[in-house]
Amino acid sequence: MHATLPRLIATDFPALARGQLEVLQANITLTCNQSCFHCHVASSPKRKEAMSQETLELLLAMLDRNPSIHTLDVTGGAPELHPQFRWLVQEARKRDVKVIDRCNLTILCEPGQETTAEFLAENQVEVVASLPCYSAKNVDAQRGDGVFEASLKGLKQLNDLGYGKEGSGLQLNLVYNPLGPSLPPAQQELEAAYKQELYKHFGIHFNHLLTLANMPIQRFGSTLISRGEFETYMDLLKASFNHATLPGLMCLNTLSVDYLGQVHDCDFNQQLQLPLGDAQQAVHLQDLLDADLQGQPIRVADHCYGCTAGQGSSCGGALSQ
User: Fold this and answer.
1) What's the Cα-to-Cα distance from 33 to each of 81, 135, 174, 177, rounded to whole Å?
2) For residues 105 and 129, is the Cβ–Cβ distance under 8 A?
3) What are residue 166's phi and psi, to 5 degrees?
4) Does a cis peptide bond (omega within 30 degrees of 0) precede residue 77?
5) CA 188 to CA 174: how far, in whole Å?
6) How far separated are the first and last CA of the chain, in Å rounded?
7) Which of 183, 293, 220, 277 is nearest to 40 (CA)?
8) Helix, strand, coil shares of the chain as percentages rounded to 5?
9) Distance CA 76, CA 30 (A)
10) What is the pLDDT along the chain (321 residues), one digit of tens a residue?
């Protein structure tokens, strides 16, 4: 895989500083039942890295000592494959912290995961689920044969439990990202199309669609380099810079923790192994339990233009309409 960081590190991206810490995002495993072309984490069934019990307990200590954190955003890989996933969710919910599970949907159909959807509902976990299109052809092209059908089965499991239905209190949001080196279309219009098509053809309900741009890092960035398209895509991101997206960037209120307990400004910086802020070496969560990070600098590089292009991208979708 081609290294993308050397092409990104020199940047003219605007300086950013942290606001109040509100979201703790934890990548608890790189193991996944899928191996997707666009994956910025490079997860796959072959990856065995997983967060230790000691580090999981540090996440909870961080919640206990920082009451401004209202959300634990759990990701991977497929986070449900971590043997302590359910324990972590239950412990966070005991603290009245909102939990987000970034779910690929197909995991709900895997052996050993038969009760996962029910567990998520019982604990009122918000599900943010990847579904890059409402057609089988496009989804399978990006994620592998049969992924669309398995994703529908997962969605139907969640719908049967009340997810995505008005008045249930169970939030189900879908995530769209383009198939190639282009920007996502307008989020509101695409959400309307998703809702119409998924309900018309499959009877599927969901709450919102979140649109994300593909980041020029890891597998996707490496593929662009191989095809000679990396600079063209970067030019597109930079030419589409939208200053109005800056106040909504996720790095302003979020800390990203990797499976080793090392802390980064965002999930993308984590994958590039960029230390937190202006630190010269890795910073561990243990050293931040009582730290006040507000006003501290955020480490930026050229990939940050992926979050500010067009209507913008974040783990919560578009940043401007």
Assistant:
1) 9, 21, 19, 19
2) yes
3) -60, 135
4) yes
5) 13
6) 35
7) 220
8) 40, 15, 45
9) 5
10) 899 999 999 999 999 999 999 999 999 998 886 555 555 555 556 777 899 999 999 999 999 999 999 999 999 888 999 999 999 999 999 999 999 999 999 999 999 999 999 999 999 999 999 887 776 666 656 666 677 888 899 999 999 999 999 999 999 999 998 888 999 988 899 999 999 999 999 999 999 999 999 999 988 999 999 999 999 999 999 999 999 999 999 999 999 999 999 999 999 999 899 999 999 999 999 999 999 999 999 999 999 999 999 888 766 655 655
Element (H, E) at 130: strand 126-130
Give the Cα separation of 17 and 74 in Å (integer).
24
- The CA–CA distances, whole Å, from 208 to 39, 99, 168, 317 equal 22, 17, 15, 9
Q: In this structure, what token pair is assigned to residue 78? A: 């497929």
What is d(CA 282, CA 14) in angstroms, rounded to the nearest whole number?
23
The one-letter amino acid code at 16 reads L
Three-state secondary structure call for residue 194: helix
Across 92-124, b (16+ Cβ under 10 Å) vs e yields bbeeebbbbbbbbbbbbbeeebeebbebbbeee
Tokens of 237: 């991101």
CA 4 to mean position of chain CA atoms: 20
* CA torsion through residues 281, 289, 246, 79, sign: positive
User: Tokens 């950013």 map to which residue?
Assistant: 16
Domains defined for the chain, CATH in brackets: 5-308 (3.20.20.70)
